[in-house]
Design brief:
The protein is an alpha/beta fold. It has two domains: 73-407, Rossmann fold; 413-459, no CATH class. 40% of the residues lie in helices and 10% in strands. It contains 15 helices and eleven strands. The strands form three sheets. It has a seven-stranded parallel sheet, with helices on both faces. Strand 6 (239-244), helix 8 (251-262) and strand 7 form a beta-alpha-beta unit. It is globular, with a radius of gyration of 25 Å. This is 2-oxoisovalerate dehydrogenase subunit alpha.
Length: 460
């Protein structure tokens, strides 16, 4: 029995790939294998040299003074900012690259995520939804980074990137169908809520385990690089991988960065450092200088950015994509500092481990939506009346999609047996028959009417 083959989003690898081809060293167009061997041989230690000439430490000066390096002697990496919390531009070189209409559209994307989060959080509390995760305070990171990518770029999200989906064209109906696991859900109701995915938008389906998407992203970026090496007609593409600072404590994070660095993969790692990994503050997670310092340790071009500053995040992402495609490909790490205003999820009460006043202070003092709004108002493209109209219209649209999705039937019961094998195996057919018998024997215990096609789908 053959397994069903499902192609990865945006990764239709050419048939010309072979194990031998994948083992070949990645050389730039101007670097031959002979040159590569000669360059490697040039790292031999020369007599009376003043520097270590050794692979992995080629610029280390010899010293006759023994000193253990201390992190406290180095300044923290700077945090890039374009617009301050008052909406004033602080980078004199900054010039907006978007029209007024484009800025308004992206602002509305941020508003949509913010309003949807409140509605769906309340829906979960009412028992109409099993689970939800909000992204309050982090809207700028998702929307701004996504706006700087090409539609062909491949994305791996974690679980707080509603803004990425919204910016790339995921509809309210798409969101609601997945959340309610109805018959229009592309995942056929098999995933937890907020585990979105879209083949059309080149966004891989979100998975629950932390950091598993990171080595997958490095591998996908390597595949894109190999594709382009074999076929120059394919447009250059990057992979964007999102994760929180808590996920950076997983081994997969380190494996992903090391692979991306050594294989020069065109991948952009976007870390949302929001202060807390579930109930663990960052100060209890690590002692180093955030996540950005780790990128430097792996030899990756790295930047730290104010995650509440929409314009700074967008500018950084634009440059990161340019760097990731340079010289055939290279990884880039972005650490976006953005406070998590919300609870970790509907299963969490964050006030059990942080003060309510701390959260309220961040809401009032530095909010990414309010900051972009202040900038827009200073440019004369937004005002209180437009804000009121936008919020009301967005709320109506969300509630309409909510109501329609909630009334839709669930996917066919038969679907739980499909999409693993090309054809149902004898064991699966036996299980399906047993399920049918169970449902018939206890009709009052199971409401099969809410599933598309009812029990009849088990007869096919």
């Amino acid at each position: 029995m053959r397994m069903k083959r499902v192609p990865l989003s945006g990764l239709s690898a050419p048939a010309r790939y072979s194990r031998r081809a994948l083992r070949q060293p990645i050389l730039s167009p101007t670097c031959s294998a002979k040159q590569s061997r000669r360059n490697a041989g040039s790292l031999s230690q020369r007599p009376d040299a003043k520097h270590v000439s050794f692979p992995g430490a080629v610029k280390s000066a010899f010293s006759n003074s023994m000193r253990f390096e201390q992190p406290s002697t180095y300044p923290g990496l700077p945090t890039y900012r374009v617009v301050d919390q008052h909406g004033a531009v602080v980078d004199p070189t900054f010039e907006p690259d978007l029209s007024d209409e484009q800025v308004v559209k992206l602002y509305r994307d941020m508003l949509t995520v913010s309003i949807m989060d409140v509605i769906m959080f309340d829906a979960q509390r009412q028992g109409r939804l099993s689970f939800y995760m909000v992204s309050a305070g982090e809207e700028a990171v998702s929307v701004a980074t996504a706006s700087a990518l090409a539609k062909e770029d491949v994305i791996f999200c974690q679980y707080r990137e509603q803004g990425v989906f919204q910016q790339r064209g995921f509809t309210l109906s798409d969101f609601m169908s997945q959340l309610f696991a109805n018959r229009h859900d592309p995942g056929r109701g098999r995933n937890m809520p907020v585990h979105y995915g879209s083949r059309e938008l080149n966004i891989h389906t979100i998975s629950s385990p932390l950091a598993t998407q990171l080595p997958q992203a490095s591998g996908a970026a390597y595949a894109l690089k190999m594709q382009r090496m074999l076929d120059q007609s394919i447009p250059p593409r990057v992979v964007a991988a999102y994760f929180g600072e808590g996920a950076a404590s997983e081994g997969d994070f380190h494996a992903a960065l090391n692979m991306a660095a050594t294989r020069a993969c065109p991948v952009i790692f976007i870390c949302r450092n929001n202060g807390y990994a579930i109930s663990t503050p960052t100060l209890e997670q690590y002692r180093g200088d955030g996540i950005a310092s780790r990128g430097l340790g792996y030899g990756i071009e790295t930047i730290r950015v104010d995650g509440n500053d929409f314009w700074a995040v967008r500018e950084v992402m634009k440059k990161a994509r340019e760097l990731a495609l340079r010289d055939g490909g290279k990884p880039v790490l972005i650490e976006a500092m953005t406070y998590r205003v919300s609870h970790h999820s509907t299963s969490d009460d964050s006030f059990a481990y942080r003060a309510r006043v701390e959260v309220e202070d961040w809401k009032r003092r530095d909010n990414p939506i309010i900051r972009l709004r202040k900038w827009m108002e200073s440019k004369g493209i937004w005002d209180e009346a437009k804000e009121k109209d936008a919020r009301e219209s967005i709320r109506r649209d969300i509630l309409k999609a909510f109501s329609e999705a909630e009334r839709e039937k669930k996917p066919a019961i038969r679907g739980m047996f499909e999409d693993v094998y090309e054809e149902l195996t004898p064991d699966l057919l036996k299980q399906m028959k047993a399920l049918r018998k169970q449902l018939e024997e206890y009709p009052d215990e199971y409401d099969v009417g809410e599933f598309e096609g009812g029990m009849e789908t088990l007869d096919k």
